[in-house]
Amino acid sequence: MTSVAATARVPHAHHDDRSFIRKYIFSTDHKIIGIQFLFVSLFFLLLGGVLAMQMRWQLAFPGQPMPGGGILPDTMAPGGVILPEYYIQLVTMHGTFMVFFAIMPLLVGVYANFLIPLKIGTHDMAFPRINMASFWLAFAAGLVMFASLFVPDGAARAGWTMYVPLSARHDYSGASLGQELWSVSIILLGLSSILGTGRRAPAGRCTCRSRPGTTTPERRSARSSGRCRSSCSACRRFWAR
Length: 241
What we know:
241 residues, mainly alpha, 2 domains, 9 helices, 0% strand
């Protein structure tokens, strides 16, 4: 009898029947998306560091063949010697990768995605599918930016701030397709940031479930005072019980 009662108190485990791709690749879980942002940020952090080391080599040993530079095409470093045009590309792309694809996703994508739902006591972001779309837009932006390094006329050469007229006139910078790809990539990244802002704002307004230790009277008070958003699915499920 005791064993039956003890067994009855054990909650029934929920079996997750999602595939690996659905669970870890195209996931709507805020923690998985935060980890995805983390790995993408670390990759571009490493890539920006590699570009920075090439810049440092040119400053320390100008005109000398760079170790491992033989793998670069002749349009960048013939015989391992960095060309002036490629050095300007290094300055531009190093700043771009570090600011837009390493620091920003690391701070906004990782910490905001992973911590905000946990801090306010909710199970996920307000719009999980938009959250997923935000990551994949950022990922696509990174691929476009990375691909701009290998176009025939080279990557953008106007600095990561892209001030005009150098960024607006291809005949000034010498980069045409690479400059256009830089602009397309930043547009995609901006859309990702806009989607990210929209998915976090509603999540922060749910006060009736703001802390796991909030008592039922406090939640009822939040509900009656109008601080609980009726559009919040978590609130509707709680008050439907």
